Amino acid sequence: MGVATYIRLARAGYVLAREGAFSLAEGQPIPPSARLLVGLARLIEKRDVRKTGRVTRLANALTRLGPVYVKLGQVLATRRDVIGFEVASDLATLQDALPPFDAKLVPGLLAEALGPNADRLTDISPPLAAASIAQVHKAVLQTPSGPKTVAIKLLRPGIKERFASDLDGLYALAGVAERFLPSAKRFNGRMVVDALARSAQLEMDLRMEAAAISELGENLKDDTGFEVPDVYWEQTGRSVLTTSWIEAIPVRDTDRLDAAGIDRPKLALTLIRSFLLQAIRDGYFHADMHPGNLFADPATGGIIAVDFGIMGRIGKREQRFLAEILYGFITRDYRRVAERHIDIGYVPDTHTIDDFAQAIRAIGEPLVGRGADEISMARVLAQLIEVTELFDMRARPELVLLQKNMVLVEGTARILDPQFNMWTAAEPVVTQWVTRAIGPQGKLDLAREAVDEAVDLVKRVPALARRAEVVLTRIEADQIRQTRRDPLIETLKWGTLATMGLAIIALVINIAGAL
Q: For position 318, what pLDDT does the model report?
C-alpha cells in the first residue's frame, strides 16, 4: 500500500471526525486505547454537527468521502450485529446521491462509448439524477419507427480509478479493525470489501446492468404488478445504458399516488410478494429497492423498477433456507428454523437443536398478538443474527444483499401503507413455496438435482482417473530409480485405486437410488 493510500485514509479519518461520526462509539465496548483515540478525534468535531443526529452525521461524512464510502455505508446497513439496529436501519436509507458532473462532457462521452450509434440520441436533457457511479439523462432516440423517449445512464469520468484507490484503503481499514475489535472478526471485513469490489466492477460495466434487466424481465414475464424497462442494446456499451423512459409516479410521493387513485396498500402487497418471488422462486432479485428506484404506473397500478446496478443472487440451498426460515416464524415452528440453520451449516452441529430453538422462540413469541405496525420482518432477521452469534454463526456474504434489501423493501412498503404487515403479505408466497418443496414435485426436483450432480461427477471421473494415473506413474518411476520399492508407496498406490473404485460404486448406487 503506497503513501497516497495512507494520505487518503488520513483524509477519511479527518472527515469522519469533523462530521462527528466517532460519536457512534459512545457507550460501545471498545479497548481503552481505541477509546482514547475516539476522544481525541471528537476534539475536532464541528460544533454545529452536535445539533443533528448521530446517524445523520455519519451519513454526511460518508457522502463527503465519495462513492466507495457511500457504498460501504449501504453495506454496513446490513450488519446490525456489528453496528446496532438503530444505526443500521437509518443507514439503510442512505441515498446514493452526489452532485452531477459537467453536462458539457456528455456528447463526447456518448461518442466515445457508442461511436456512430450515438448520433441517434438527440435532445439530451441536463442530468435528472446523479449517483456515486453514474448519472441519468432524458433523451430522444431516433428509430425507423419514429422517435422514442429514452433514459440514458452514463458512468462518471474517472470513476474506475477512484474506486480502485479507495478500495486499497478499505482493505487496510478492515485489517486494522479485525486486529483491534473482536466484534469485527465476525463481520468478515475483508470479505465484505471483496464483495464491494466485485459489486463495483459489475456496476461499472453498464452492459452487465443491461443483462440484469433482461434476465429479471425474463423471470417476471408471466407475473403481474412488477415491470422493468426495455433495453436498447445498440445504444448500450460499457459506460452507457439506454432504456425506455418510465412515465410513472415515485412511490415516495404518496399525495400524487392518492390523486391518481392508486391503491397504496395493494401496491405495498405487490412489492413485497414480487420481491419474495424473485428471491425464493428465482434466486435472482433487485437488491436496491429503496423508494428512489421504485415507481407506480398509473395505467396498471403496478410497480416499475429502475437502477439494476445492484442485483442479488442466491443458490437453491439459500432459497430453501430463506423460505423455510420465514415459514418457521409464520407457523411458530421454531425447531424447524433451528434445524435449517444447522442443516445448511450456518450453525455448527456442536450446538443442540433444542438450545438453538429455545433462543429462536425468544425472538418469535413476542410477535404474537402485536399490531401490524409493530411487527418487522427486518427486525426479526436482525435479532436472529444477534442470537446466532451466541451459536458461533459467522457472517454469510451470500445473504448480505438479501438482508439489506429486506430492510429497504419493508421500509418502502410502510411508506405506502403505515399499517402494512410484512408477515401477512409473505405468508401465501412462502407457504406455497414450502408446500411445493416438501410435496411430490419438490422431492422430484431434489432427485433431479441429485442426478444432475451425480452425472456431472461421473463425467469428471475419467479426468480424475487420468490425473491419478499420472501421479502414480511418477511415484512408481521415482521408486524404480531408487532400485527398490518402498512398501509405503505400494500401499498408497493400491489404496488410492481401491478408494476410487469404491467411490465409483457408491456413485452408481446413489444414482440408482435417486432414480
A: 81
More confident residue, 224 or 469: 224
Counted domains in the chain = 4
> What is d(CA 237, CA 205) in angstroms, rounded to the nearest whole number?
8
Bin 148: left if φ > 0, else alpha if -120 < ψ < 50, else beta.
beta
**Does residue 142 sit in the same domain as residue 175?**
no
CA distance 391 to 186: 12
Residues 404 and 324 in one domain: yes
Q: 82 or 344, which is more confident?
A: 344
Last residue of a domain, which of 420, 438, 456?
Answer: 438
Per-residue CA distances from 30 to 41, 88, 391 (Å): 15, 19, 22
pLDDT at 432 exceeding the cut of 60: yes
Find out whether 295 and 303 touch, Cβ atoms under 8 Å. Answer: yes
Single out the catalytic residue among 81, 96, 166, 288.
Answer: 288
Provide φ and ψ at 417, rounded to 5°. -145, 100
- Domain span at 500: 442-514
- pLDDT tens digits for range 157-209: 888 877 777 777 777 777 766 665 555 555 566 776 776 777 777 788 999 99
Looking at the fold, whether 324 and 356 belong to one and the same domain comes out as yes
**Whether residue 232 is found in the same domain as residue 272:** no
Q: What is the DSSP letter of 231?
A: B
The angle subtended at Cα 361 by Cα 285 and Cα 426, nearest 5°, is: 30
From 422, 438, 454, give the residue that closes a domain: 438
* Whether residue 258 sits in one domain with residue 223: no
Cell matching residue 473:
506413474
288 a catalytic residue: yes
